[in-house]
Design a protein that fits this description.
The structure is a single chain. This protein has 285 residues and is mainly α. The protein folds into two domains: 210 residues, Rhomboid-like (Rhomboid-like fold, Up-down Bundle); 44 residues, no CATH class. The protein is built from twelve helices and four strands; from the N terminus they run H-H-E-H-H-H-H-E-H-E-E-H-H-H-H-H. The strands form two sheets. The protein has a two-stranded antiparallel ribbon. A two-stranded antiparallel sheet has the order 3-4. Helix 5 packs antiparallel against helix 11 and helix 6 crosses helix 7.
Length: 285
């Protein structure tokens, strides 16, 4: 099996939608870079990417409506995609094991759409952008990754994450810091990108509230069938060995934290069947 066949095999057999999104983003990035190289070598005008990035010009968007989706997979450079994929991998793997693969797909696409729409609205209705409303573009998976990050923080706000393997911080504070930075940096540069991030973050927050049943949309249900997710309450005060003998295992908070740390380091696929079963049972409480 050559490398290409191995990649296709892993993509088809992967149980993680997070990894599939990463594969797609990386593949699109490589293809886009190769196309750009060919145009550059022959001194041709490389305008193909403009058909896939999201323009702030309302007229262009009407003619290219697909860009509200395709812009989520177009990145400007190696560090842009590297940061977004690292963000997506860290929080996506953590959340996917708790709420399921289908929710990750909705968070990615709808979070990206929410970020794109907020970007369009800001550039077409805020006075500060009136002289550049037809010049800005938006690209990248940042809004989608922000939606997943904030959804993770809302779903389990007290869970700690080890940044760089050293500094531990609760997800609710990490989300608050990242959102605050985006708000502050709107006027400092890359305004469209920061605005799109906030759109994704807002959607991630509302999405978790919705699937929990905390909020309702009585007239328009964009999520189809609601799959309610229970609030994360893992603490129990039970003799574990006695419970195990009865055929049911109720994991302690330490057990769950250890499993979540393992997901953040290695991904959901690295869990053993017992660990996955333990995580599932904890989420049913």
């Amino acid at each position: 099996m050559n490398i290409w066949e191995e990649i296709k095999f892993k993509y088809r057999t992967s149980d993680s939608n997070v990894l599939k999104f990463i594969y797609i983003n990386v593949a699109v990035f490589i293809i886009e870079r190769l196309v750009y190289l060919v145009f550059w070598l022959f001194k041709s005008n490389n305008d193909i990417v403009s058909f896939f990035v999201l323009s702030s010009d309302g007229g262009i968007f009407i003619r290219h409506p697909w860009t509200i989706i395709t812009y989520q997979f177009i990145h400007e450079g190696i560090f842009h995609i590297l940061f977004n994929m690292l963000w997506l991998y860290t929080f996506g793997n953590l959340l996917e094991g708790l709420i399921g693969k289908k929710h990750i797909v909705k968070l990615y696409f709808l979070g990206g759409i929410a970020g794109g729409l907020l970007f369009l609205g800001a550039y077409n209705f805020l006075p500060v952008f009136e002289n550049i409303s037809a010049l800005a573009t938006c690209r990248g998976a940042s809004a989608s990754a922000m939606a997943i990050m904030v959804a993770t923080a809302v779903y389990m706000p007290e869970q700690e994450l080890a940044l760089f393997g050293v500094f531990r911080i609760k997800l609710k504070w990490l989300a608050a810091i990242i959102i605050s930075i985006d708000v502050i940096m709107i006027s400092a540069g890359n305004s469209g990108g920061h605005i799109a991030h906030l759109g994704g973050a807002l959607f991630g927050w509302l999405y978790v509230l919705y699937i929990r049943g905390n909020i309702r949309f009585p007239t328009i249900n964009i999520f189809n069938k609601r799959n309610k997710i229970p609030t994360r309450k893992f603490k129990v005060d039970v003799n574990r060995s006695a419970v195990k003998n009865s055929g049911r295992i109720k994991p302690s908070q330490d057990d769950i934290d250890a499993i979540l740390d393992k997901i953040s380091r290695s991904g959901y696929d690295r869990l053993t069947s017992d660990e996955k079963d333990m995580l599932f049972k904890a989420s049913q409480k």
